[in-house]
Amino acid sequence: MTSVQMSAKDEMVEQFLDYASRGDLAKVSTMISHYSQLLKESGRQGWTALMLAARHGHFDVVKALLLNGCNKDLVNKSGQTAHDIAKFWGHRHIARFLSSSGDVTLQGVLPSNKSRENETFFSREYLNRMSDKRTDLEWLSAKQSSPETVFIVFYNLDPFVTTEPEEMKQPKLKLYRFGKDSVKEVIEKSDTVVIFLGVEKQECSPSSPVSKEDGLIAWFALNTNNNPTESLKVTTSNSFFLTRPMPRLLMLNEDEAGIVVQARSVLAWHSRYSFCPTCGGETKVDEGGYKRTCLTEGCRSLQGIDNTCYPRVDPVVIMLVLHPDGNQCLLGRKKTFPPGIFSCLAGFIEPGETIENAVRREVLEESGVAVGPVQYVSCQPWPMPSSLMIGCFAVAVSTDIKVDENEIEDARWFTRQEVIDALVKGNQAVFFMPPKQAIAHYLVKHWIGINSNL
Ligand SMILES: NC(=O)c1ccc[n+]([C@@H]2O[C@H](COP(=O)([O-])OP(=O)(O)OC[C@H]3O[C@@H](n4cnc5c(N)ncnc54)[C@H](O)[C@@H]3O)[C@@H](O)[C@H]2O)c1
Ligand SMILES: [Mg+2]
Ligand SMILES: [Mg+2]
Ligand SMILES: [Mg+2]
Ligand SMILES: [Zn+2]
């Protein structure tokens, strides 16, 4: 390392220690979020930031440093820990906090995450995808002409659904299951894309007829941009294309919601990527709809693994940011939300970014709040058109809010009680929650459910 680099680093450490001595929580948090190795640094006489914050009685800085994983057992050149220092200078609450076994650190604020998988709406897998069959053209073709095979139909990415008359008040929608003869005409049209979804898991459908060939009931989905109503042979009333999919897709039953998210995301990819993104040439649909192969000889997309050939999934972090006091959470609203709704902050993960860093960046960008520990909770495929919402809890290490008005309209800390009211009191609450099928709702409920005595 050159002397210039050395002095730049020394200067940064000195500044960090100075902020800790003066109790500047925002500056300390921002520096840690950029250079976490600062937590290990010490200055004159081996004093760390934790020791300096303890010396000067800055409880919030001590907490933030510990939440970020600072080692409280380090000693200075006089052999004192941060705890010894806090005690010596009479900051009893800090000494008590440092001697407690770190309860108020990560585990204290975050609900415990018992490693069970948390199921969200859209996440249930009703079908076995059988990806090995996607290249078996003979098998796919036999299944497409089998009378047991189920076809679901989309028009401009809206699924054809049906509802029972007695359920009309609060309709639970079902996918309309077409047989091969009903969709024959539509499949033959040149703009129609057909994809293979999978086969029914045997245990899910004990009453279904069993296919004669191999006992597997295959499902296919198709999308067309020309209204297919005339050519489809529909035998029931109360059946229609589900236009304005959001929020109406949330009325699907849970088993079929998982099928729709798979089908709609892949079909949306086909409708947006008609040509090769590498050379602009024509492509053909391969692998049961899970690949588009460029037809231009020598195209770079044909060499090695090329991700433009495969359907895309866009990872999005969505996070419930918890206040360091463990009793409030940060929610925000976009201008486009219906009046009164506040939700978890969210944002697309960028290339080369971890889930944790995306959470920290998006929260800082949108609300100005610095985040320390991040814990994964659950995820949700989201068919608008192909996001994977990655739900996390995160602990704030600074609490002042400065909203980026380009992204969101408002962000606030809500108390546990306000959140409980929003969940149970509806109109009398100070704000509204997103619908129960959204992972934002799930995260909030999970936080309340685990930590409260409800
Ligand atoms: N904010 C919420 O409460 C919430 C809740 C549920 C679902 N979602 C979904 O999460 C997604 C991301 O949230 P956000 O809009 O706040 O993200 P964001 O904060 O990253 O901001 C969105 C902006 O990011 C850019 N962007 C970067 N990568 C993109 C990509 N792959 N696709 C589209 N735009 C991209 C675009 O300019 C876009 O306007 C949205 O699609 C939204 O439907 C958000
Ligand atoms: Mg953002
Ligand atoms: Mg956002
Ligand atoms: Mg973003
Ligand atoms: Zn190409």
TrEMBL record:
Q: Name one GO biological process term.
A: NADP+ catabolic process
In terms of InterPro entries, this protein maps to: Ankyrin_rpt (IPR002110), Ankyrin_rpt-contain_sf (IPR036770), NAD-cap_RNA_hydrolase_NudC (IPR050241), NADH_PPase-like_N (IPR015375), NudC-like_C (IPR049734), NUDIX_hydrolase-like_dom_sf (IPR015797), NUDIX_hydrolase_CS (IPR020084), NUDIX_hydrolase_dom (IPR000086)
Q: Which SMART domains match?
A: ANK
Provide the residue intervals of the ANK repeats. 45-77
Q: If you read the UniProt record, what top EC class would you report for this enzyme, in one word?
A: hydrolase
Q: Which GO terms describe its cellular component?
A: cytosol; peroxisome
Q: Which GO terms describe its molecular function?
A: metal ion binding; NADH pyrophosphatase activity
Its EC number is 3.6.1.22
Among NCBIfam families, the record links this protein to: PRK00241.1
Q: Which family does it belong to?
A: Belongs to the Nudix hydrolase family. NudC subfamily.
Function (record text): mRNA decapping enzyme that specifically removes the nicotinamide adenine dinucleotide (NAD) cap from a subset of mRNAs by hydrolyzing the diphosphate linkage to produce nicotinamide mononucleotide (NMN) and 5' monophosphate mRNA. The NAD-cap is present at the 5'-end of some RNAs; in contrast to the canonical N7 methylguanosine (m7G) cap, the NAD cap promotes mRNA decay. Preferentially acts on NAD-capped transcripts in response to nutrient stress. Also acts on free nicotinamide adenine dinucleotide molecules: hydrolyzes NAD(H) into NMN(H) and AMP, and NADPH into NMNH and 2',5'-ADP.
Which protein, by its recorded name, is this? NAD-capped RNA hydrolase NUDT12
State the organism of origin.
Answer: Pangasianodon hypophthalmus
Query: What taxonomic classification does the UniProt entry list for its organism?
Result: Eukaryota, Metazoa, Chordata, Craniata, Vertebrata
